[in-house]
Design goal:
heterodimer, A: about 90 residues, mainly alpha, globular, B: about 30 residues, 1 helix, about 60% helix, about 0% strand, rod-shaped
C-alpha cells in the first residue's frame, strides 16, 4: 500500500513539474517531451521510490523558486531518469 | 558559434543545461 501511495504521489509531483516546465520552456517544447520520454523509459521500481520523490520534490521547489534555472532542473531529472532507465537495468544483468 | 545558437538566457548554468539537453535530443533524433 505504501508503494502505491508513493507511486501516486510521484506521478502527481511529476505532472506538476511538467506543467511548470511547459510554461517556462515555450521556446523549446521538445525538452519537456524529452523529459517525458525519459520518464516513460525509467524503471517502475525507481518511479515509485523515495529517492525519486525526494529528487522530484527538490527540483520542483527549486524550479518554482528560480524560473531562470528551469533547464538546469530538467537536465538534472533527465540525468537521474537515464541512470535508472529500465533498458539500462536489463543490460546490467549478468 | 552561429548567432542562432546563442540565446538570451541570463543564467550561465541554465544556458549550459539547455545546450546539453538540446544536444541529447539532437543525438537521439539522429540515431533514430
Amino acid at each position: 500500500k505504501a508503494a502505491h501511495i508513493l507511486k501516486v504521489e510521484n506521478e502527481k509531483l511529476f505532472e506538476e513539474f511538467v506543467a511548470h516546465c511547459t510554461l517556462h520552456t515555450q521556446d523549446h517544447p521538445e525538452v519537456v517531451t524529452f523529459l517525458q520520454t525519459k520518464y516513460s523509459k525509467a524503471s517502475p521500481d525507481f518511479l515509485m521510490s523515495v529517492e525519486f520523490r525526494n529528487a522530484l520534490g527538490r527540483c520542483l521547489t527549486r524550479a518554482q523558486a528560480n524560473t531562470a534555472k528551469t533547464f538546469v532542473y530538467i537536465n538534472e531529472l533527465c540525468t537521474l531518469l537515464k541512470q535508472h532507465s529500465a533498458k539500462r537495468r536489463v543490460l546490467m544483468q549478468p | 558559434e552561429p548567432s542562432s545558437m546563442i540565446d538570451d538566457d541570463d543564467d550561465p548554468e541554465n544556458r549550459i543545461a539547455k545546450k546539453m539537453l538540446l544536444a541529447q535530443i539532437k543525438a537521439n533524433y539522429s540515431s533514430g
